[in-house]
Each structure stands twice: as structure tokens, then as C-alpha cells.
Specification:
single chain, 427 residues, 5-stranded parallel sheet, 32% helix
């Protein structure tokens, strides 16, 4: 029997876990396509942005990951179009035929149609975003030391973070820890200055998806870190160094970090009726896309309402993507053995967020409880270390954390960046 060609578009949590699960199934030839030649661990992006980790700690080339796995292949390219009639995808680097196509493209930053914010804010969605934010913060700190315009310095002292979900909370807490521990040591010019951090969200609480206990603990912990919380407050514009809110308030700032929302990708060649809110593809219990016989979608790219525990669809979490990738792989393996497919059912293991040094929250499912403080913080470190895809990443991350938390107290990497003459310093 001819080997079946499975093409996976996207190498995030869903795509990589599916590919790894299919490793060794030689009757299934798997090609993973991605616009980058590396996988990255998105939950730790903010630690790259603030200098806690280097890029190598959270990235690994796909070809390195697939070494000695004979049925796994990689193709670099940007998806341009799917031709479902001929079972072909067209990439910026050529075309690929498939027997089965799996869309695992994840999401992109949602600016909700606000052009000025898309143009001027700093997102936190990929490695380039994290590096750009890190270099931006470094260069702004350097500029501050020689700036003589008090009006400009006042704007530089304000950092606004929009979105009080896990990403926003984590980056706000990390910047606050940096401010408290190392900033004034490395920049003595800032000794008598005050860096103001604002965390803004349209919701009435921080961490809206998490338990009330987690929300209350996080709210207090952020206040203890002297982070200014502006809840029930929606950003409406950002221009001329000023953030505008729908309640007519404003904050003058040079820095708006945007973590307020995500949306899926619209794919040329997929009919409009296959999409639901947020550009998520409608899939059945086996992750097959509506209206197509051999196209599947997993992770954040899809919405699946067949799971009895999640009738409105699963949350857009890495754990869902990971489980869906593995489950679809197991069904393809079952297909080669003429066995029945199993419908996907998400095993909810809870949610976590880190706030600062020895401050975190964790809503556990088994047993059903909420952890706070250093126990949750340690659990967060352990779980995220375990989820990294390679032993090299695990070792590098552990070593960086050891030096940051148990050695020097906090990484000084946030102060290591490009030179002022580097043309890419702020790109």
C-alpha cells in the first residue's frame, strides 16, 4: 500500500506534538510546514522579552527535532493557498501534495481594527516580538539616561500593558521585579526616578478565565508590586505618545505593550462557511473541518463543540493544542491498522499564571484546588520546564532560572542588548 502523505501547517504546540506522535509510523509520511525553521515555546516569550531567558532556551530548529526520524520531514514556507480539489497546498517556496492536510496555524495578535495600535504598540506573540520588546526596553533605558527633556522623560517613565490575562500579568510582574531588583543598580541614573507600570483590561478582574481565589490573590500581589491596575477600562487608541481609553481618560507613554487578544488566520482556499467567531475553523469530534473530507484543524486554529464538557468550544490553551495534536495522530495511526477513530475529549489539568518572584497562582483540577504563593510558583516552574520540547531547552532554561532565582536574584540579561549603532536594535 502506498504511504499516505500528511501535511501539517504550523509548528506550534499542536503541530509539533502531532508530528512527534507520528514518528516511526513509516506508512505515514509527515511533512511539517512553518514560516520559521524553528519551534518556540510561547508561554516563556515574556521571559525572553525581559531578559530572564535567552532565545536559545525556548527555541529549537525543526530539523534538529526531527533528526533520525525517517518519516518526519520539514518544509520552510509561508502558506499562500489551499487547493482542496487537487489536494495541494501552495507555499511561498513551492507546492506540496497531500492525502491529509492538518491546519495548526495558531493565532495572531488581534488589534480589534485599531490601526494606530497595530502600528505603534508592541505585541507579544512570537520570538521577533519578544526580541523587539527586549531591545526596545534596553534602548529606552539608555535614552532616558541622557534625555534632558522632562516632558519626554515623564512619558518614558510610564509603561502601559493592555490585557490582564496570563501574558499581561506575567510581563507586568516581571517588569516590576526588574524595577525593584536590578534596574537602579545597573542604571544609577535612575536611582531617584519612578517607573510607573499600568496594567489595563476591559474586564472587571485580572485573569478572567481563572478562579476567584486566583484573581483575588493576583490582584493583591500586583498591588504589592506597585502596579497600577485599571480594570473595566478599554483602550480605544494610541497616538502621539498617548493611550486613549473609552472612558475619556488618557496616559502619556512611549510604551504600550499589547496582550489584549488573539484571532485566527483566514486561509485562502477555505470556504467562508467553515469559520466561526475569531476566525476559528469549525471541526467535528475528530477535528475534521466542516465541508471537507480530508482537511483537519487542531489547536487554536479550530473550535470544537462536540466535547460534552466544553459545549461552546475549548479554551485557547497550549494544553488543548497539545492534546488535540496527539489525539489526531493516534487516530491516523488507528487508520493504518483499520481501527475505529476516537472522538477528542479534553482532559482539563487546570491553569497557571506567574506574577513575580515566588508569587503565582494555579487552579488545579485533580485534586480540585487553587494553589497560591511559592507552592504555585514552584509548580509553574516545574510544569513549564517539563513542557519544553527538547532536553537542551530544559537544561538551558533550568540553568538560567537557577542563576536568576537562586544565584543573582534576578537575571541581568535584560540589560544586555544591541549597540546603539546596530541598525536592527529597534527592528
Amino acid at each position: 500500500m502506498k504511504d499516505k502523505q500528511i501535511v501539517i501547517i504550523g509548528g506550534g504546540f499542536a503541530g509539533v506534538n502531532m508530528a512527534k506522535k507520528l514518528s516511526g509510523e513509516n506508512s505515514l509520511q509527515v511533512t511539517l510546514v512553518d514560516r520559521n525553521n524553528y519551534n518556540f515555546f510561547q508561554p516563556l516569550l515574556y521571559q525572553v522579552a525581559t531578559g530572564m531567558l535567552d532565545v536559545a532556551s525556548i527555541t529549537i530548529p525543526f530539523r534538529t527535532l526531527f533528526t533520525k526520524k525517517q518519516n518526519l520531514h520539514f518544509r520552510l514556507g509561508e502558506l499562500e493557498r489551499i487547493d482542496a480539489d487537487s489536494n495541494t497546498i501552495h507555499l511561498s517556496t513551492g507546492s506540496l501534495p497531500y492525502d491529509y492536510l492538518v491546519i495548526a496555524t495558531g493565532t495572531k495578535t488581534n488589534y480589534f481594527g485599531m490601526e494606530n495600535i497595530e502600528k505603534n504598540a508592541l505585541p507579544m506573540k512570537n520570538v521577533n516580538d519578544a526580541i523587539k520588546l527586549r531591545n526596545y526596553l534596553i534602548m529606552e533605558s539608555e535614552k532616558y539616561t541622557f534625555c534632558t527633556d522632562e516632558n519626554e522623560k515623564r512619558k518614558m517613565r510610564n509603561i502601559v500593558i493592555s490585557g490582564a490575562g496570563p501574558s499581561g500579568v506575567e510581563i507586568a510582574g516581571m517588569i516590576a521585579e526588574m524595577r525593584k531588583r536590578k534596574l537602579k543598580e545597573i542604571y544609577p541614573e535612575l536611582k531617584n526616578e519612578r517607573l510607573n507600570i499600568y496594567l489595563v483590561d476591559a474586564a472587571p478582574t485580572v485573569l478572567p478565565p481563572m478562579s476567584e481565589k486566583s484573581q483575588q490573590y493576583t490582584h493583591k500581589a500586583l498591588k504589592d508590586l506597585h502596579i497600577n491596575l485599571k480594570l473595566n477600562t478599554m483602550v480605544s487608541d494610541y497616538k502621539d505618545d498617548k493611550v486613549y481609553f473609552k472612558n475619556d481618560e488618557t496616559i502619556e507613554t512611549k510604551t504600550l505593550i499589547w496582550t489584549a487578544g488573539v484571532t485566527g488566520f483566514k486561509i485562502n482556499g477555505i470556504m467562508e462557511d467553515a469559520y466561526e467567531k475569531g476566525n476559528r475553523l469549525t471541526v467535528d469530534a475528530f477535528n475534521k473541518v466542516a465541508h471537507y473530507k480530508n482537511i483537519y484543524a487542531i489547536g487554536d486554529a479550530c473550535i470544537q463543540k462536540t466535547d460534552p464538557e466544553f459545549p461552546e468550544g475549548h479554551p485557547q490553551l497550549g494544553s488543548v493544542a497539545q492534546q488535540q495534536g496527539k489525539a489526531l495522530a493516534e487516530n491516523f495511526i488507528a487508520m493504518t491498522k483499520n481501527k475505529n477513530w476516537e472522538p477528542f475529549k479534553y482532559k482539563d489539568k487546570g491553569a497557571m499564571a506567574i506574577i513575580g518572584d515566588q508569587k503565582a497562582v494555579a487552579d488545579m483540577t485533580f485534586p480540585k484546588t487553587t494553589l497560591t504563593g511559592w507552592i504555585a510558583w514552584f509548580s509553574w516552574l516545574f510544569v513549564h520546564l517539563f513542557l519544553l520540547v527538547s532536553y537542551r531547552n530544559k537544561f538551558r532554561t533550568f540553568w538560567n532560572w537557577f542563576n536568576a532565582y537562586l544565584g543573582e536574584g534576578h537575571s541581568q540579561g535584560v540589560m544586555v542588548g544591541q549597540t546603539a549603532t546596530d541598525p536592527n536594535a529597534l527592528d
